[in-house]
Amino acid sequence: MSDQTVVHLLRHGEVHNPNGVLYGRMPGYHLSDLGKEMAQRVAERIGDRPIVHVRVSPLERARETAAPLLAARRVEPVIDPRILESTNVFEGSRFAPGDNALRNPRTWRHLWNPFRPSWGEPFTEVAARMMAAVHDAREAAAAAPVEADGRPNEAVLVSHQLPIWTTRLHAEGRSFLHDPRKRQCTLCSLTSLHFRGDVLTQVSYSEPAGDLIPTRDKGAPFSAGGAPEEHRPR
Fold first, then answer.
1. Where is the secretion signal located (predicted)?
2. Residue 152 burial (CB count, 10 A)
3. Which of these, 11, 44, 84, 162, could form a disulfide with 57 (CB 3.0-4.6 Å)?
């Protein structure tokens, strides 16, 4: 058993969504060709790491993102509904340019409380279910034999942007209130939680497929291939 473990939160790759729908938990949304390339790039970049445990959201885009990494590591996934996308009353609505659901006054009644938020699953509930899955993954990784080179075992949770970002805000002791346009959680990025025993000691962020991310999706600036940004929990 290892005293140190790392649990990576991997966001899925680009989804084929030509109509600009907020698909949320809707079935039938798969990775685009670029999204599949992103997933393969992740496997190439981290497939040699001591990843011994993988949990995957039930949604198609997460399972397709996980597939190349699972093949590289020869690990059987655990399908975990606790790490799927958050619920949202706008699911199925269009948010394409010129046809944005938020321009309709009838939707404004859902926007009264951004702290909860009033339009979807409470942030506190998202953080609780995600952290429960994180600790289960940490325990599974810690219990597995350590590889010969002695590197700490790692686990991966393949999830979605809002649950991952909410988990990071919780881990760093920050407010859940945020601007969605400024989330540092790009396509196929890794938000990594570092543990010693069951104590979270560090949060880091990296973009193994950063060179493939379209400019419109980059969000917060990050130098692809550079050193991960590191944060200490408060």
1. none
2. 18
3. 84
Beta strands across the sheet bearing 229-231: 78-79, 51-56, 153-159, 4-11, 190-196, 199-206, 229-231
pTM confidence score: 0.85
CB 39, CB 68: distance < 8 Å: yes
Nearest to 28 by CA among 17, 43, 41, 39: 17
Token pair of 108 as six digits: 């404004």
CATH 3.30.450.40 fits 4-231, yes or no: no
Domain coordinates in residue numbering, the chain: 4-231
Q: Angle CA(81)–CA(193)–CA(215) in degrees, nearest 5?
A: 80
Measured distance CA(47)–CA(70) in Å, rounded: 9
Contacts of 175 (CB under 8 A, 6+ apart): 169
Residues 70-107: tens digit of each pLDDT: 999 999 999 999 999 998 776 777 665 556 655 666 65
| Tokens 């989330």, located at residue | 183
pLDDT value of residue 20: 85
Contact 88, 24 (CB under 8 A): yes
